[in-house]
Automatic annotation (TrEMBL):
InterPro entries: NAD(P)-bd_dom_sf, SDR_fam
Lineage: Eukaryota, Fungi, Dikarya, Ascomycota, Pezizomycotina
TM segment ranges: none
Keyword Membrane tagged: no
UniProt keyword list: Oxidoreductase
Name under which the protein is recorded: NAD(P)-binding protein
SUPFAM superfamilies to which the protein is assigned, alphabetical: NAD(P)-binding Rossmann-fold domains
Molecular functions (GO terms): oxidoreductase activity
Length: 332
């Protein structure tokens, strides 16, 4: 079953990148008056998403970046490219490696007049073991800090949706690589899931990115069942794009550059999938999206054993977040 699911996911990804052109956001979409946050906004998919939001008339875009100087350079480029007013784009500092930084960012966001969408684009792909806040870095950045941001912003997102009548969207990019995520580290009876993933000796870093994207789907599906329709959360797959995300793989494998040239989408095209997630309806709540449509995730998600792992992991995730910010579980 898992093998067939992996084959299906891989075949779909290759077919999509070779033969499917993602639709552009509809030109008659009017985002006037709306405010969006985009993390990892200074480059790649994050930047291109900001371009689309600007062209569609968003009132304000918060470009959340780790290095403010790079964010200001990206803002200048964005203003020149779109002709927007300087005041319509703000650059805020956000380091997903730091819980304190995530907390400060979320606290600052409480002062926004409204919040219509959050594109949690910041993420990493690495085969190198590194600790971030005492947790393996990709697990921390791609999963723990990302959902820390969600939980901290949840009250603001709900309040904004109630006052404006427009449900806030929280979008986390995903990947077809979740079809290839190994379950051995999740199914073992040795300790908790978090403990196993933080065991350097037994961790498989070559597929850790794949696994973090599977964990994102688990958490998104759980949160969707608990939000009571007050927040729309989804996880779209922009597919392989010519961005800097996989720079380690490119440097280590010369053949990967040829594959990228053949298969990878431009970051502009990939960003259409993310903007679609930000503009989509309630039918996408809790869903994995591919080619701008709801798409069935891997059997690691839909199978009965996957559903049990989903519940176990989400419980552990909430417990972890509670140690970072006491009382945060009440924001569910």
């Amino acid at each position: 079953m898992a093998t067939l699911s992996a084959v299906r996911g891989t075949a779909h990804a290759i077919y999509s990148n070779l033969f499917v052109t993602l639709p552009q956001p509809k030109k008659n979409t009017d985002l006037s008056g709306k405010i969006f946050i985009v993390t990892g906004a200074n480059t790649g998919l994050g930047y291109e998403s900001c371009v689309w939001l600007s062209r569609l008339g968003a009132e304000k875009i918060i470009m959340a970046v780790r290095t403010e100087s790079k964010g200001l350079q990206a803002k200048a480029k964005l203003l020149a490219e779109t002709g927007r007013l300087d005041t319509s784009i703000e650059v805020w500092h956000l380091d997903m490696d730091s819980y304190d930084s995530v907390k400060r960012f979320a606290n600052r966001a409480q002062g926004l007049e409204r919040l219509d969408g959050v594109l949690a684009n910041a993420g990493i792909m690495t085969r190198n073991w590194r600790l971030s806040e005492g947790i393996e870095s990709s697990l921390n950045v791609n999963v723990v800090s990302t959902f820390l941001l969600y939980f901290l912003l949840a009250p603001k997102m709900r309040a904004s949706g109630k006052s404006t009548g427009n449900l806030c969207r929280f979008v986390i990019p995903n990947s077809a690589l979740h079809f290839l995520a190994p379950l051995a580290e999740l199914q073992s009876t040795r300790g908790t899931i978090m403990e196993r993933l933080n065991d350097e000796t037994n961790s498989v870093m070559g597929t850790r990115y794949n696994l973090t994207k599977l964990l994102v789907i688990y958490a998104v599906r759980e949160l969707a069942t608990m939000s009571n329709g007050s927040i729309i959360i989804n996880t779209p797959n922009p597919s392989w794009c010519k961005s800097g995300l996989a720079h380690e793989m490119m440097a280590a494998d010369p053949g990967a550059k040829h594959a990228e040239a053949l298969l990878a989408r431009s970051t502009e095209e990939g960003s259409r999938a993310l903007v679609h997630g930000l503009l989509s309806g309630e039918d996408t709540n809790g869903q994995f999206l591919s080619n701008c449509q709801v798409h069935s995730p891997s059997c690691q998600v839909t199978g009965s054993w996957g559903q049990q792992i989903q519940k176990d992991f989400f419980r552990e995730l909430v417990e972890k977040l509670e140690t970072i910010q006491t009382g945060i579980k009440e924001n569910i």
